[in-house]
Amino acid sequence: MNLLSIITGRPGPSGFGSASTAEQVTEGIDASNLTAIVTGGASGIGLETARVLALRGAHVIIGARNMEAANGAKKLILNENAAARVEVLRLDLNSLKSIRTFVNEFNALGVPLNILINNAGVMFCPYQLSDDGIEMQFATNHLGHFLLTNLLLEKLKNTAKTTGIEGRIVNLSSIAHLHTYHEGIRFDKINDQSGYSDKKSYGQSKLANILHAKELARRLKEEGANVTANAVHPGLIMTNLMRHSFILMNILKVFTYILWKTVPQGASSSCYVALHPSLKGVSGKYFIDCNEIAPGALARDEDLAKKLWDFSDKLVTSLSNP
Ligand SMILES: NC(=O)c1ccc[n+]([C@@H]2O[C@H](COP(=O)([O-])OP(=O)(O)OC[C@H]3O[C@@H](n4cnc5c(N)ncnc54)[C@H](OP(=O)(O)O)[C@@H]3O)[C@@H](O)[C@H]2O)c1
Fold this sequence. Notes:
Pfam families: adh_short. The protein is α/β, with parallel strands linked by helices. The protein contains eleven helices and ten strands. The protein has a single domain (3-320), classed as Rossmann fold, CATH 3.40.50. Helix 5 runs parallel beside helix 6 and helix 6 (136-163) packs parallel to helix 7 (198-223).
């Protein structure tokens, strides 16, 4: 995809482009035999993703920290589609304890799991630490999803094995992965406040989302598991994500308005990668506007992806056993 395609909405090789909506890219797909978890599904791209997956018949579990907003999202989906199967469970990705509770509650539902959409995120927050004492953007956008995915992995693999239906994991990354610290991930300074940049830390966490999907895909392939893992950049969409940069983003939008997408367009890549039959067996890739594209050099670095995996694994273990 090039700038012209983004501006004009001209479809890429997949047949879809920046103007395609989540409903359009999933038209005719029957997802009634699928169960999906969408993190951060109470607003923005996650809510639209949950809505469209449910519209296609999937049983959707929204993981959200704000239960009032999550129940509002559920109501909105049911108002439009009374047959929708939607549930909400509390999930705070800032807290490893909350993630473990969420997984226990999900397991107690006794349902299978075909799709995990790691969508929740925060952007450009001032320096702060998560409940477990980790820099907030890295903790929420990457580390929380890393633990969540690992805790749900056996369920995803078993569901794929018993049903013969490919499982899919989708990580919401961003083009912002190109704007990170010069070393990519600051392994030895993950909590360093003095060198903290809200923009670069967001970029770092979004780089981590791609590297996570890449290394996960490699591991799943090695094991012969029938589960794929990919990352997407949804486009530029005005959502609550801009809460820490509202003025900056609105000024930026004035000059770049032609590049911005609506929320239904913003959810297209997540829904496409989660449901589209043409992506069977496609794993470890990065998508923009429903088309595969090469991410930046750091995001293609296999050693960095392995290093991040080991780092995240050790960090989660040490935080879980203080
Ligand atoms: N919008 C864009 O232009 C854009 C561009 C590139 C990538 N993305 C990515 O797309 C994803 C969705 O963003 P969006 O634009 O739809 O923003 P959004 O409307 O703010 O949605 C993000 C969701 O994540 C939730 N969340 C944040 N912190 C959480 C936590 N600790 N635990 C659980 N949930 C948490 C938010 O809940 P609360 O309301 O409770 O905070 C919200 O529901 C993000 O990963 C973002 O990085 C967006």
